[in-house]
Design brief:
The chain is of the alpha+beta class and 602 residues long. It is built from 17 helices and 23 strands. The chain is 32% helix and 22% strand. About 14% of the residues have low confidence. Bound molecules: adenosine-5'-triphosphate and magnesium ion.
Length: 602
């Protein structure tokens, strides 16, 4: 007798619901996305008690005929994709065919819908995933979905919901984000009888921003195209007291996403303007061809994967940097007077349309550019081998090809010629000229060193003669205290000191005393941001990345010749010498061929 049984479909749906429906705001998100996919121009959202009692989303979209209305409630039933190929370029917000059945399985759901041109509508009631009734009904064209008593049949889940106020706040944040992304659609949100948001349709984002936030002289406009990406939006302007803090709304092809690469690029742009600001307000739209971003990587589609992660980082960093006036990394232009009618050839960011051609241009020498997304890790595996020129194999890092290999992007023994703006090392080898971002390169080196020590045992720790006592916000404090073990392995000894205080008695030897306080603060923020229950390796990796970033030489730091040589040598020895822990390129290269061609020597 075997022991495996097939789960009944309502139980399977409840399990699936666990992924899609985390809280009321996730239900509202799915319903609004469906309304947008149905071409609605007006969407009205009503919630009671933070959505726990009731959520209703009403739209004037295309509606559904009765047979579709029934199918819509079944799992894996969708009108949005038909075949596997469709997954490569998804143009709708939904595509999994899971949202409605998932929501229906953990609530009392009523679906009312009337297809455009139909004379009447259909009303279907579902209780805990089981259809209770279906009747014909009179209604306006469009769809109304009501979800009552979320998680009534999953008490454990219901217990995890926050207060009504907190859940309402999440819902209004979500509706605000959707409204920002779709200015041509009218949105209203009514929460427990109170009109929280009312945005009639407008022609553009600027007007929508005004509807929601009023006049905002403290924001500056972002507008930049590059590498096949179009970046637009508004971000916090630099100000004496620092840019305003606020929501960080990032949209990729109008889909709200959380993305570390982009978050890092934003922080990078601000920090290169020497502003210590970790949460400037941004409303940023990144538009790119559908096939350059995979949206099928996360159950609620909150995360996406870019085919060219470093490119996205670079374009966003420049776009934001330009907008706030900090100036992007210097653009390097190679004059080639008679080379082409188009004028200067050099573009620091490869245009995706150029295909292979960008290899020979000023392209960031990162193998990540040329590779498929799965080959671009957020960082090396924990046990990243650190060897000399020989390419690491088992881990299969993206640099493998670059270090060994074929050519342009290899990190060979390079001779430094000097610094540019005290920020970039200009170096040469037999095969070309390289411009190395000294901070990013050093960050990469230190990161690997920290990770190596971690896997080997304990990082060198330095006991402080006078322990540091510092006050931290509760979330950060908790996050640190929950990770004392991991922190200890890195050389930090942190303990509770009562109240809001923490005491730090030891720090990694690699950190100077001055940096330690800042590093602990940053760590607290980073760890707090990590999802609970995420792997401890991830926390460690973050710690290593943060420490590396803090201990690395900075931009605008004059370096001696010896230091430059040392840095370049160390760089050659790292396993992933071409990308920083956050995926930024370490260097730009101009190949010998390119130089010769431009001087018409070949
Ligand atoms: N408001 C609506 N107006 C018209 N049709 C809708 C509406 N909501 C859902 N549908 C139809 O029901 C189908 C199922 O919706 P559901 O949200 O479950 O899946 P999906 O949107 O296709 O994919 P995902 O699970 O990724 O959201 C949709 O494909 C669509 O055809
Ligand atoms: Mg959907």
């Amino acid at each position: 007798m075997g022991k495996i049984t097939r789960l009944p479909s309502d139980l399977a749906n409840q399990i699936a619901a666990g992924e899609v429906v985390e809280r009321p705001a996730s239900v509202v998100k799915e319903l609004i996305e469906n309304a947008l996919d149905a071409g609605a121009t007006r969407i009205a959202v009503t919630v009671e008690l933070g959505g726990k009692k009731l959520m209703r989303v009403e739209d004037n979209g295309e509606g559904m005929p009765p047979e579709d209305a029934r199918l819509a409630l079944e799992r894996h039933a969708t009108s949005k994709i038909r075949r596997a190929d469709d997954l490569a370029a998804i143009a709708t917000l939904g595509f999994r065919g899971e949202a409605l059945p998932s929501i229906a399985s953990v609530s009392h759901l009523v679906l009312r819908t009337r297809a455009r041109g139909a004379t009447s509508g259909t009303e279907i009631k579902v209780n805990g995933g089981v259809i209770a009734s279906e009747v014909e009904t009179g209604m306006a064209e469009g769809t109304v979905i009501e979800v009552a008593d979320l998680f009534y049949n999953l008490p454990a889940r219901r217990k995890f919901l926050k207060s009504d106020g907190a859940e309402s706040a999440q819902i209004s944040r979500l509706v605000t984000q959707m409204a920002l992304a779709y200015p041509e659609v009218g949105f209203t949100l009514t929460s427990s009888g109170r009109r929280v948001l009312a945005c009639p349709p407008v022609t553009g984002f600027r007007d929508r921003l005004y509807q929601i936030y009023g006049d905002r002289p403290d924001l500056v406009e972002v507008r930049r195209d590059g590498g096949g990406l179009a970046i637009s939006g508004f971000v916090a302007a630099l100000a004496e007291q620092g840019p305003v803090r606020g929501p960080q709304n990032v949209f990729v092809n109008r889909r709200i996403v959380k993305d570390r690469t982009i978050a890092h690029a934003i922080i990078d742009a601000y920090s290169s303007a020497s502003i210590k600001e970790r949460s400037p307000e941004v409303h940023l739209f990144i538009d790119m061809p559908l096939d350059r971003v995979d949206v099928n990587v996360h159950p609620t589609k909150a995360e996406v994967r870019f085919r060219e992660q470093s490119l996205v980082h670079e374009v966003v960093r420049r776009a934001v940097g330009d907008a706030i006036g900090s100036g992007p990394a210097p653009e390097l232009t190679l004059q080639a007077p008679q080379a082409s009618p188009a004028g200067p050839v050099a573009v620091p960011i490869p245009d995706l349309n150029l295909g292979g051609a960008y290899q020979s241009r000023w392209a960031p020498a990162t193998a990540a550019f040329a590779r498929r997304p799965e080959a671009v890790p957020a960082g090396p595996p924990l046990a990243a081998p650190v060897s000399s020129g020989a390419a690491p194999t088992a881990a299969g890092p993206p640099a493998a090809a670059a270090t060994e290999g074929s050519g342009d992007s290899a990190v060979r023994r390079m001779v430094p010629l000097g610094q540019f703006r005290d920020t970039f090392i200009i170096a040469v080898d037999e095969e070309g000229v390289a411009i190395v971002d000294q901070h990013v390169a050093h960050e990469r080196i230190l990161f690997e060193r920290f990770m190596e020590r971690l896997t080997a045992g304990t990082a060198e720790s330095q006991r402080l003669l006078e322990p540091i006592v510092l006050d931290l916000p509760a979330g950060g404090r908790e996050a640190l205290l929950a990770n004392t073990e991991a922190l200890h392995r890195f050389g930090f000894d942190v303990e509770d000191f009562g109240g809001a205080s923490l005491r730090v008695t030891a720090v990694p030897a690699a950190l100077g005393g001055g940096d330690a306080v800042e590093a602990v603060r940053v760590l607290a923020q980073d760890l707090e941001g990590l999802d609970r229950g995420s792997r401890v390796e991830e926390a460690l990796r973050r710690i290593a990345a943060t420490m590396a970033c803090h201990a690395a030489v900075k931009a605008n730091d004059p370096l001696t010749y010896e230091k430059m040589t040392h840095l370049l040598d160390e760089l050659r020895r790292t396993a992933y010498s071409t990308v920083c822990p956050h995926g930024r390129p370490v260097m730009l290269r101009l190949t010998r061929r390119e130089i010769e061609r431009n001087f018409q020597r070949i």
